[in-house]
Structure formats: C-alpha cells, structure tokens
Amino acid sequence: MTAFSADLLDSIRARFAHVESCPFQGPRVFFENAGGALTLRSVVETSTTYAAIPDNQGRDNPASHALVKVIDTAKADARQFFNAPDGAIFVGESGTELTFRLISAAILGAAEGGVVLGSTLEHPASRSACARWAGIAGKPHVLVPHDNATGTVTAADYRKHLTPDVRVATIIHTSPVTGMGVDVAAIAAEIRAVAPEAFIIVDGIQHASHGGIDIAHYGVDGYVISPYKVFSRHGYGLAWASERLAALPHDSLVGGPAGNWELGTRDTGSYATFSDVVEYFRWLGGQVSDATDPRALIEAAGAAIHDHEQALTDAMLHGTGNLKGLAELPGVTVIGGIDNLAREGLVSLIVEGMPSVDVVAALNAQGIRVHVRKADHYSGNILDPLGRDSCVRVSLCHYNSPAEVSQFLSAMAGITADAAD
Ligand SMILES: Cc1ncc(COP(=O)(O)O)c(C=O)c1O
Fold first, then answer.
1. How is 84-127 classified by DSSP, letter by letter?
2. DSSP code at position 209
3. Cβ proximity of 223 and 215 under 8 Å
4. Does residue 95 have its Cβ closer than 6 Å to ligand 1?
5. I need a surface site. Which of 54, 139, 171, 356 has the fewest CB within 10 A?
6. What is the pLDDT of residues 176-191, one digit of tens each?
7. Residues 6+ away with beta carbon under 8 Å from 326
C-alpha cells in the first residue's frame, strides 16, 4: 500500500520525537502536520548542544571559528536542499517575517509604477505583505482568482491577469487549506514570458515537507520556508534570494558587509538543525534508491515521500481493508475534489450537519489530532467562496502509517453516522 516497507517506516518513525504520543495528551495519531511537522530527534539533540554555547560568531577563538563553520555548512546543505546554485540563503524570525522582507525589498526595489500580482490561493503571509508594500509603493495589488473546484491555481489562471508591467509576482507552492500544490515553474515561465523583469517570490512553507524543491528549475527570485514545518524546530524561518533580489536595498547595518540579509547575531543552533533536516533527506534517499550523489539522494527522498503520502491520502479517500473511505462516508464533502493529482498529503473536509469544531473534538476524543480551519483571515480566502464557515484539516506526512489512516477512518465512520442521525 505504501512506498515504504514496514521496516523502513519503523526506521523513519524512530528518527522523530513524539510520533505516537503527545507529552500533554498521551497516545495520539498526529494528523496536524500542516500546522507543524514532527521534529527529528537529531534536531532536538543539536538544539540542546548549541543552546549551551555562549560564544558569538566572528571572533578569533576556536568556539567562534567552529560556529561559523557550522553556519557555512548549513548554508551549503540548504543550497543542496533547495537546489539553488547561486543567490543568498539566510535565516530570519519566521517564514512570515522573511516573506514580508523579501516582498518589501522587491516592491520597493522594482522599477517605478507597475503592478504587484498574486493569487487568492495564497496564505495571508504573502497576500498581506504585498497589500502593505504595494500600497506604500503606489502599485495596484492584483489577485488572480484560484479555482474553487480544484483548490489550486494554474499558469492559465495567471495568464489572464498578466501585463508587461508586473513588477513583483507571488506564488504559493502548496495551499495549507486545500492541500493542493501549484506548478511553480509553469507559472513563473508564464510570468516571465510577459513580464521578464518581474521579481517572483514563492511561499514554499507548506510544500517543503512533501518532497521536492528545485529552485534551479523554477526561474524565481525568492523562496521561503518555515523549518518547523519540515522536521526542524520552531524559532526561525529560512529564505533563498536570487542574486538580483539579494542585491536590492534592504534592511541592513550601515557600513556592514554587502549582501548580508541577516539582522543581528545569528542563532547557530537554527542553522545546525537545518543541516540535520538535510542529512535526514539524504539518509531517506539512500533507503529508497541506489543514488550516491547528495542532491540525487534528496530528490529520491522527495519522490518517495510523495508516493507514500499519496498512498495514505488515497486510502483515506477511498478506504482500506473493510473501512470505507471519506468519498463513501455519508455527508462528507472533500475540498478540492476527491481525485486531485495536485494533492500533497492533506485532506480538508466538511461533515454536513456537524460543525467542524465538533468533528475535530470528536476525533481528538479518540486520540486523533486534526485542526479546524475557519473562514477567518487565514482561510476565508478558500472557505468564503465555497460558502463554508469552516472545515476539518487532516494533514499527513511521510512518517504517518497505514494503521493511523485506518484508525482515522474507523473514527470517521462513527462520527459521520452520529452526524446523520
Ligand atoms: C503556506 C503558508 N505560508 C505561510 C505560513 C506562515 O508560516 P509561519 O507561521 O511559520 O511564519 C504558513 C503557516 O501555516 C503556511 O502554511
């Protein structure tokens, strides 16, 4: 049923903390990965190690030299993970903060006039940053409507709104509400065909854990992730900026090193934990392929992650063993349709006749953690056009198991039967 043998899945799960049990709740199935993925045990250890080091970077002592080396190694690892041969890589306060920083620099640094273009699929991180800085720069902010039926946005959708004066464009790689991925390379090519000089910035925050980032082939200028959503820990975001975006004026110390996007003393531990993430991808790639080249290992891991997650979401939608899938359960509506090739490890659903908060609570009572998405500033862009006030987001990662999907479906059979009564 899955891309991983039972033994490999056990080895994968052994590498993560709190897989089967929550320190606050006890045993639970973790299907809240879109809110924050499980943390690698290696990340926990590395964080502890670096939290105890008092030294700063840029001093002439062994500790300081070691810290700088760790940061340099982590940047090289991140470059490999992103497949970003050039440009700048740096950490910031969060994915949201870095999204704001890249977008503000692009909008303020772009030529006079023109338009800022994004889509209604986007998370408020990029939409809000564009709204704010486009307003300050006096550029209209145009939003390409996404497709309500498929829960995604395409190059053809962007094409209808493209003009040669697009100065900055934003693309979300994967929606955290519908769970559907976007063809970033195709949209970027479409934008470049009409507005070759546009700065294109991608929110990759929801996509990163689902396998496969390939910046060299996207033709974009900025890419942001939140490492706690890809097996590292909370407390930092990670960004890549193309050489031409990185060269734009941005917040930095007067007289400081040119091209430096980091503000203040860097947390070596955050960089070091990202090396752990990349090492994990290389390890997984070695388990599922004969590849030896480090980037090929990461790509193999990404493909296997995608296949495993697809097997799990297929089981969730169409059933497994004698358990009915969501598609067959009475009164269940799945956002973005049942069979959608753009799906990335996430199923958002509505149980007719039962408020989503109650579905989440009923699942929680059976030890299954999912999350409600409400039509608020985070998810109203997806739910309002569907005429829904909320949905239940069930989000998986590659360490989830077929048994956990079965547990979920068995709980859902009872919940939907209760809702139908
Ligand atoms: C697509 C997307 N963009 C941005 C964010 C914001 O990320 P953070 O809270 O880590 O800054 C999220 C968080 O869920 C997200 O899913």
1. --SSEEEEES-HHHHHHHHHHHHHHHSPSS-EEEEETTS-HHHH
2. G
3. yes
4. yes
5. 54
6. 999 999 999 999 999 9
7. 316, 317, 332, 334, 338, 347, 349, 409, 412
Q: Find the 285 Cα to ligand 1 centroid distance in Å.
A: 26
Predicted confidence band at 245 (pLDDT cuts at 50, 70, 90)? very high
Query: How many angstroms separate the Cα of 128 from the Cα of each of 120, 153, 198?
Result: 11, 18, 19
Q: Is the CB of 382 under 6 A from ligand 1?
A: no
Segment (H or E) for 177: none
Question: What is the CA 71 to chain-centroid distance, rounded?
Answer: 23
| Residue 220: closest CA among 258, 177, 263, 173 | 173
- Token pair for 292: 């030896």
CB under 8 Å to 367, separation ≥6 — which residues? Answer: 25, 26, 27, 28, 29, 407
Cβ neighbourhood burial of 364 (10 Å; 0-12, 13-18, 19+): middle
Neighbouring C-alpha atoms within 13 Å toward the C-beta of 411: 21
pLDDT tier at 214 (50, 70, 90 boundaries)? Answer: very high
pLDDT in tens, 360-409: 999 999 999 999 999 999 999 999 999 999 999 999 999 999 999 999 99
